[in-house]
Write a structure and sequence with these properties.
Helix content: 25-40%
Order of helices and strands: HHEHEHEEHEHEEEEHEE
Low-confidence stretches: none
Strand order of the largest sheet: 3-2-1-4-5-11-10
Mean pLDDT: 92
């Protein structure tokens, strides 16, 4: 996933306000008593949230399954004079050398877990990686967003050096959306390179997330809607889920 266009990812996502996202996660972490300390960010991608979280006083470890995305993250970190370890790992088999105060996973990382077994594996791995009293905090694109908004038609944009087309297909039985993307990137000689990408995301219901978190050992599970401290609702486009590992 993302291997073909890791080098384009930041340009495509340049309208995302990662600083505000980091402010929100800093606030969520503080609610659960985490105002500093060690955090592992799973599915960290190119580190666009990792770096702002580091600047807010946390000790970050970035984990992603894509070596290409991690390379981009490491380059950005180096250019900013920040030393963050970026490690290639599958979040379902997270294995860290030291316990974390928190594990986070943002920007649809959990949506890419397509089965109940995948979801439970990640939650259990995160539970093992968090110190007693720590927290797991993550977000998902909601079923409403995946089914009603992303699958509402063909998307496209023509930028100076990148043009893309984006068509999504909803699969009701599997509760998944198939994302088909075609990118055309301008080369130095004026010609264009075509990149095709197909991804799949799972729409997780609130009850599924809660029950699987409890099965993995987490407690005090809370769901918030759309970057607020309000309770999650069905018409939110993004849910933020927090759960704690009890003190042994």
């Amino acid at each position: 996933m993302y291997q073909a266009f890791a080098e384009l990812y930041d340009e495509l996502m340049n309208d995302v306000d990662y600083e505000s996202w980091a402010d929100y996660y800093t606030r969520l972490l503080s609610v659960y008593g985490i105002r500093g300390g060690k955090i592992c960010e799973c599915a960290c991608g190119t580190g666009s949230l990792t770096l702002p979280m580091y600047r807010r006083g946390f000790q970050l470890t970035g984990v992603d399954v894509s070596q290409d995305m991690l390379w981009q993250a490491a380059q950005k970190s180096r250019k900013q004079g920040i030393a963050i370890p970026f490690v290639r790992q599958d979040m379902r088999a997270l294995n860290l050398h030291r316990p974390m105060d928190a594990v986070i996973a943002t920007c649809d990382g959990v949506n890419y877990l397509l089965t109940e077994e995948d979801l439970l594996s990640f939650f259990r791995a995160a539970f093992r990686s968090i110190r007693p009293g720590g927290a797991l905090i993550f977000d998902v694109s909601t079923p409403y967003k995946l089914k009603e908004i992303l699958c509402a038609g063909l998307f496209g944009e023509d930028r100076e050096n990148i043009t893309y087309l984006w068509q999504n297909t909803w699969h009701e039985k599997r509760k998944t959306v198939e994302l088909d993307l075609v990118f055309f990137t301008r080369r130095e000689d004026g010609m264009y390179r075509r990149i095709d990408e197909r991804q799949h995301q799972r729409a997780w219901e609130q009850q599924e997330l809660k029950e699987t978190l409890w099965k993995a050992g987490f407690r005090a599970v809370s769901l918030y809607g759309d970057y607020t401290m309000n309770a999650a609702s069905e018409k939110n486009q993004r849910w933020h889920i927090a759960a704690t590992r009890g003190k042994d």
